[in-house]
Structures are given as structure tokens and as C-alpha cells.
Amino acid sequence: MVLRVKTRVALVTGAGGGIGRATALALLDAGCRVACGYNGNREGAGSVARGQGAMAVKIDIASRASVRRAIAAIKKEFGGIDILVNNAALVQEKPFDAITDADWDRMLAVNLRGAFITAQESLPHMVARKWGRIVNITSIGGQWGGMRQVHYAAAKAGLINLTHSLARLYSPHGVTANAVSPGLVGTDMIARELKSRAGKRKAAQIPVGRIARPEEIAAGVAWLASDAAGYVTGQTLNINGGMLMS
Q1: What backbone phi and psi angles, to 5 degrees, belong to 18?
Q2: How far is 207 from 236, CA to CA, in rounded Å?
């Protein structure tokens, strides 16, 4: 199946590595022009953006001013955003009783409010064109809860609900909103977790017998961003090797 996203402009946040990098490359392969958002990993985003039809853009999704500057830069280079992939996220492992108010606030500011801000600032162009795609990268933790990442799991659960709300509000305007929920993926973000006893036990229990490759998650995102998925909205696509079946 050919994914029809040619002439579309995509913003992928957290595109410097892992799922974000794989998604940016998948959308480029599908014919998109891609803005590779980064906050800390400028080199990683820049390496993706060296190809034709791509640009690296500094964006701190917890800051509305930063988001607005990034979108202005994307509009100047490519025009408005047609596809938004909210991938950038913060992760922190801590026992529940050690999570501070500051930890909690920072986690929700990045992992939930950040997606709210980027969606809100990107939507006017999509609505005006009567076509748009919002894909929020959530997590299996947002579906079954967290043990050492309670605040992370809570933010990701909120992101799933935000996805539902955006789908209800904007699908009538031609803008779909969906979530992709990975299980364990071979990225730097979860490398520490996979070294722990609990992480190793979790990985050993995956029905398909391995963790995911970032490209496998990116393939799901690219499909949701395409015309082929125009009748799919308000859904959570589980790509977890069978860790959670629903």
C-alpha cells in the first residue's frame, strides 16, 4: 500500500532519536516535507533534516512561546502544518513516595500540556484546509498504570483522553486525531528500564518474544497520517507485541 502524504507538511516533535527519528524518516519516505522538532538533541534532528524536504526546528513543547516560534519558522519554510506527531516526552523512574510536586508538574507540563499546546497552535491551519492529522504517541503505561513511573503513566493516560476529545471536536472539520501506544521499544529512553530486574522480566513476558524496533512504531504513525486512514479517528493503535490485548 502506498501512503499518500505527498505535498503534506509534518511536524514531528522529539525527532532527534528513537521513535521520533524513525517517524520523521518514514514520513519523508512517504513524500512529506518534515519539520524535525528538537529541544536538546539538535545533532540528531539535524542528521534527519539534511535530506531534501526536511528542516530541523528548535521547540520546547512545554513553552507556548517556543511552540509559536517553531510553527512560524515551519510556515515560513514549508507553509502550515498538516500532520502533527506529538512524540516528544519526558521519562523519569521514581518510587511513588519519592515523586515530588516539581516532578509531577514537570511531567505533565511536557507529556500532556505540551501536546495540548502544539495541537492548539497547529489546528487552525488544518481546519482552514479541511484536512489534518494529529497522532499522539502515548504508552502502554497510560493504559495499565505505572509502578515506578506513576506520573508518566498518568500523563500518558491523559494524552489518550485528549486524543478522544480532539477527535470529537475536529473530525467534522476533516482533522483526525489518534494515539499510538507502544509497549517496550528499543530506544535510549527505556534503556535504563530494560537493564533493571523488573524491566528484564517485563521484556521476557512479551508474547512475540522481543521488544519493538522504532521503525515498527513509525509505520503505524505513517499509516494514521495517510489518506488511507481517513476514516480512523479517536482510536488508540496498540503496537506492543501482545503485551496488552484489547
Answers
A1: 60, -135
A2: 20
Segment 178-221, tens digit of pLDDT: 999 999 998 776 767 677 777 778 788 899 999 999 999 999 99
Give per-residue pLDDT as tens, 108-133: 999 999 999 999 999 999 999 999 99
Sign of CA dihedral 188, 189, 193, 194: negative
The residue type found at 103 is: D
- Asked whether residue 80 is assigned to any structural domain, the reply reads yes
- Among 5, 60, 70, 47, which Cα is nearest to 221's? 5
Which of 21, 31, 40, 131 lies closest to 85, judged by CA? 21
Counting the structural domains of the chain, the total is 1
Answer yes or no: is 2 within a domain.
Answer: no
- At 134, the amino acid letter reads I
Quote the distance between the C-alpha of residue 187 and its chain's center: 14
Sequence letter at residue 217: I
The verdict on residue 134 lying in a domain is yes
**Nearest-angstrom CA–CA distance, 111 and 62:** 8
Residue 245 lies in a domain: no
User: What CATH number corresponds to the domain at position 56?
Assistant: 3.40.50.720
CA-wise closest residue to 40 among 18, 10, 71, 72: 18
Strands 83-86 and 54-58 come out as: unpaired
156 DSSP β-pair partners: none
Q: Give residue 217's domain range.
A: 9-91+115-141+156-239
The one-letter code for the residue type at 180 is: V
Determine the Cα–Cα distance for residues 82 and 149; give it in Å rounded to an integer.
Answer: 33
Residues forming the active site = 152
pTM exceeds 0.90: yes
Residue 111 and residue 117 in contact, taking contact as beta carbons nearer than 8 Å:
no
